[in-house]
Amino acid sequence: MGRAGAAVSAQTATIIAIALTVEVLFLGLSVALQLISSGASQLLAAAITAGLSLVVAVGAILGTLVLGGAGDAVLSLVLAFAAAALLWLVVEELLVEAHETPERTWTAAMFFVGFLALFCLESIG
Asked: N or C: which end of the chain has fewer CB within 10 A?
């Protein structure tokens, strides 16, 4: 993703890296809280979250090694697959779970605050 963003500009690659870092941070916090609420110790939750973070880092390194010399067609194919996988995840998993809990005004407000923050980061760049 960084190389594809860097093909457009270095600022776009930086914004993508920041956005992914924030996303993985909140994903890790969600996993740790879910583990703790299901009865796991804080140490075990921290260890599992750290392990999952290492999996992300190893995946990034492997992706760089495998796709480092790939052409534009291969990168486009990989990015298209990743986008389709994320869309499927959102539609099949997250939207179903979102409708299982009652809707709150602050939840919608935080969604738009996050969207505006990323939009402003892109506008600044």
From this structure: C
Question: Which CA distances in Å does 75 have to 11, 18, 84, 125?
Answer: 19, 21, 14, 23
Contacts of 32 by beta carbon, 8 Å cutoff, 6+ apart: 45, 46, 48, 49
The H-assigned helical ranges of 38-104 are: 42-67, 72-89, 95-98
49 closest CA partner among 32, 72, 66, 67: 32
Q: Give the position of tokens 């990743």.
A: 82
- Sign for the CA dihedral angle at 52, 32, 28, 83 comes to positive
pLDDT digits (tens, 9 = 90+) for 21-77: 888 888 888 999 999 999 999 999 999 999 988 888 888 888 888 888 888 788 888
- How crowded is residue 107: how many other Cβ atoms within 10 Å of its Cβ? 11
Task: Evaluate if pTM is beyond 0.70.
Answer: no
111: which 2 tokens? 């969604």
